[in-house]
Amino acid sequence: MTLMRVLPFTKFLLEQAVSEGDCVIDATAGNGHDTLFLAQLTAGSGKVYAFDIQEDAVLATRERVKDFGNVEVILDSHAKIEHFVKDEIGAAVFNLGYLPKGDHSIITKAETTLSAIGQCIHLLKENGIIVIVIYSGHEGGSEERDAVMDYVQQLPQTKFNVLKYQFINQQHSPPFLVAIEKKAVRK
């Protein structure tokens, strides 16, 4: 057996949760890799909403998913998800930190991230999942990491399963994954 790295494990969890036709969110589009992956998982019959505050990220994402008509790339904060998304979602993905190969002074922040996570939880269908990859090795990253961890640890266990997936023997603040699964209501 080989342990999955954080990003492959993130994709594995999304594959388990997302079905063809689902509405899904990429809360931090970046270069569009997760947006493309979600577009493929929803098989064109679903809807993918991708958010980023940087025009370069939006342009890169639009280029990456140009062959998919089911993707809406939005130049706006993920804190405004509910302004754009009205349907129940099967999944959401976040990559916290800064845009790779972009301006490292533009980072995700605890206030908007917690708002976005809360909005996704509100929209999440039963057995849906929110996956959050936390990069915290940059200035401001540890504050956001701590705020997210405090928030998710307080989610009621009767309604949510919360997983932390992390390699604990690596140096230099390696990324780790937090997954929030909405439990099905027992009848």
Description:
By secondary structure, the chain is of the alpha/beta class. Helix content is 33%, strand content 25%. The protein has six helices and seven strands. A seven-stranded mixed beta sheet has the order 3-2-1-4-5-7-6, with helices on both faces. Helix 5 packs parallel to helix 6. 41% of the residues are buried.
What is the residue-mean pLDDT, rounded to a whole number? Answer: 95
Biggest sheet details? 7 strands, mixed
Alpha-carbon Rg, integer:
15 Å
Quaternary structure state of the chains depicted: single chain
Number of helices: 6
What is the straight-line distance between the termini?
A: 38 Å
Shape: globular
Helix-strand pattern:
HEHEHEHEHEHEE
Strand order of the largest sheet: 3-2-1-4-5-7-6
User: Helices and strands: which structural class?
Assistant: alpha/beta
Structural features:
33% helix; single chain; 187 residues; seven-stranded mixed beta sheet; alpha/beta; 25% strand
What topology does this entry show?
Blueprint: H1 6-17, E1 23-26, H2 33-41, E2 47-52, H3 55-64, E3 71-75, H4 81-84, E4 89-96, H5 110-123, E5 124-134, H6 141-153, E6 160-165, E7 176-182
Parallel strand pairs: 1-2, 1-4, 2-3, 4-5
Antiparallel strand pairs: 5-7, 6-7
Helix pairs in contact: 5-6
